Amino acid sequence: MTRVYNFAAGPSTLPLAALEEAAAKLVDYEGAGMSLIEMSHRGGRYDAVHNEALSLVREMLGVPDDYYILFLQGGASMQFGMVPLAFLRNGLSADYIVTGHWGKRAYADAAVVGDARVLWDGAGAGYTRIPSLRELSFRTGAAYVHICSNETIGGIQWKEFPDTLGVPLVVDMSSDVLSRPLPWERVSMLYAGTQKNLAPAGMALIIMKKDFAAGARRDLPAYLRYDLHAENNSLFNTPSTFVIWMTALTLRWVKSIGGLPEIERRRDERSRAVYGAIDESGGFYRSPVERGSRSSMNIVWKLADARLDGEFLDGAQREDLHGLKGHKSVGGFRASLYNAMPVEGALALADYMRRFADARG
Ligand SMILES: *Cc1c(COP(=O)(O)O)cnc(C)c1O
Which of 29, 39, 140, 176 is buried most deeply by CB count within 10 Å? Predict the structure, then answer.
């Protein structure tokens, strides 16, 4: 099989080692005579995989002991609603920093549930930058402040998490989780849909500080209660056993290559190559994003001459560079450079971009 370079934003490329191990064991799991995904989630074999996934998250991200790690269904979108349901009790309000499509979605769901306020909105500049700390004034009485660490569609990223002056910070890290170390002293909760940096779709990874979780409402339908999931080690109901297995396999791969330091080294090498091709094209390719806010995971650009868009995409496809079409809301192109994208994939894309610009520029 020729494995193409898949730059899709999510679901997205996974480590080949993880896919191959799952394929080899899918039908007969370690001699059990059945697949892991046919087994009870209450049995010993599944339990070992479940706990390995949880403990590798803790190990790879250096999650402190006073944080719960949960695997919940419904993806990141479920958390858009679950967070305000749990934390916006009567009389409390939360602040949202809206940096793009996903920040806006999170805010919209919170506004349905309770008193959600927009602390900052980047719409005026077309969501092309992250605000500076000077532009933000945190309210000490807020239940939490919500940010999206990496806007997958707009291609902008918080390089540093803000110090919210004691207000709990909740972060949607769907598209950059596991790509960077975290300043735990600043983070009360994060959540991430699994289908970008971790596993197939169908689940979210949630990491929340125990004392923050203690303030979550319990007078909610059972599945929406963080306390029940925490007490039951994410086995309150039937979990996404396949997705959790794949998460374990991805994390094993992360560990095998050297953990976060190597993940970061590859991340920087990939993004340097593609931004380099944009910056050195003499305006042939244009990034709409402010330099200091550039995402290392999702790189967006446009061709100065949009009439060449189709030809650019077709040529890329012929060189096995797939999934480069930009989101329909912004157009242009996007390369998602998640952890599992080999550095060679980014180098091949940059090389193609240079040759295309030379031929057509
Ligand atoms: C993909 C994405 C989501 C939505 O994730 P689902 O798992 O599909 O609900 C939310 N936020 C960000 C930043 C994303 O990239």
Answer: 176
Among 256, 286, 301, where does a domain finish?
Answer: 256
CA-based R_g, the chain, Å: 21
Select from 286, 287, 281, 307 the least CA-distant residue to 359.
281
Whole-angstrom CA distances from 260 to 118, 154, 255 are: 33, 25, 8
Q: Are residues 286 and 189 in the same domain?
A: no
Q: Tell me: do 237 and 263 sit in the same domain.
A: no
Q: Is residue 176 a contact partner of residue 297, using CB atoms and an 8 Å limit?
A: yes
CA separation for the pair 302, 310 (Å, rounded): 12
Give residue 203 CA to ligand 1 midpoint distance, Å.
10
Question: Rounded to whole angstroms, how far apart are CA atoms 64 and 361?
Answer: 52
Q: Is 158 a catalytic residue?
A: no
Q: Model's pTM, two decimal places?
A: 0.98
Residues 26 and 41 in one domain: yes
pLDDT tens digits, one per residue of 54-111: 999 999 999 999 999 999 999 999 999 999 999 998 889 999 999 999 999 999 999 9
120 carries an active-site annotation: no
